[in-house]
Amino acid sequence: MINYAATCGFNLGLVRLMFEGLKKQTSKDFELVLSDHYFLRHQDAVKELAAHADFPVTHVPVIPHPTLPRHYLDCSVFNQSPLFGESERFVRLSEWRLIHPTLTETLLAAPSRHLVDFHFQHAPAEAWNEDEGIINWDAVQFEDLPQTFHERTPINCYGNNSLDMTTWVEVNGFNEVAFGFYHFEDHDFAARLANSEIPCIRVGNKMFRIPHDYGANPGRCESPPERPFAAACHKCEQLIATIRAVVGEVSYFQWSEFFLLRGKDVRVVDSEFQSFIICNDCGFLFPWLTDPRGWAIYEGTDYKRSPINVEGAGRNLNTLWDEMRGQPLDLKLRVFEASWVDPYFLK
Predict the structure, then answer these.
(1) Which domains are assigned to the chain?
(2) For 227-262, what is each residue's pLDDT tens digit?
(3) 3-class SS at 40?
(4) Contact 297, 149 (CB under 8 A)
(5) For labeling, which of 41, 270, 296, 307 is most exposed (least CB within 10 Å)?
(6) 173 pairs with which residues across the strands?
(7) C-alpha R_g of the chain
């Protein structure tokens, strides 16, 4: 069984497209788990969509860390939907994707301990209508992209890919410590899979990106989310705003150097393979990258598991999955929310 582990930070039209893509699947051996930044706003509409679907649907609110500050982005959200499912394999699905009717078949045929990655392909505007929830596959230009096999996962995999849950918890999912400010959790994830010698199957014409601009609100949302992230302090926010206004676009390596310029306002904490710059006032965490190559420096090392409990950030997802599997939804919600600060999940 496949878990379509989805997130939503935009409008209902994109959720309708998601349901339309799933209804057209040639295999129905899957479930949808939708973690929604607008759970209350969308609840009735999603219930209606689920009532007409021929697959199980779990709709839950995005539950962020209650106290750990984030700025704009929190990539730990991508761990939520896999944990709420009951399937052996999940595929990460953002609302900005169209999925081909044979995707589930492709994923069911994949061996365990193999990542399934997708070529980065775009859907033309003629292929979708979010107002009506219509997908027009006749408008999509399919490319000649034969399936390829890689003995080790390439580091250039994109985030919307598929893995079995056993392997996913072994590498401890998506890094919950390093990515509370910017994207690149996909490269970090791929590096750990490569270092764990996990093979990769790359396929084309199965998942297509809908061109879009990210929202300006936390979580890349189009409007403020119902459950906002904990806020960073004024000093952290002022530094970020000043660098963007004065310097413009800078690399992730350069961001590390700028945060270190705060001197006594920050401290450096080392985990096994990564170091973090932490604000002494609010606890905002920032990865200290010491090499301009960024996350590529971890490829070919013993870095195989994302960090756990760096100043209270980063859960043990294997322990959390064991506690949540097979439980009723109300208990799953309580366990997940408590897991951010419960010492049992931080070791």
Answers:
(1) 2-216 (3.90.550.10), 234-298 (no CATH)
(2) 999 999 999 999 999 999 999 888 888 888 999 999
(3) helix
(4) no
(5) 270
(6) none
(7) 20
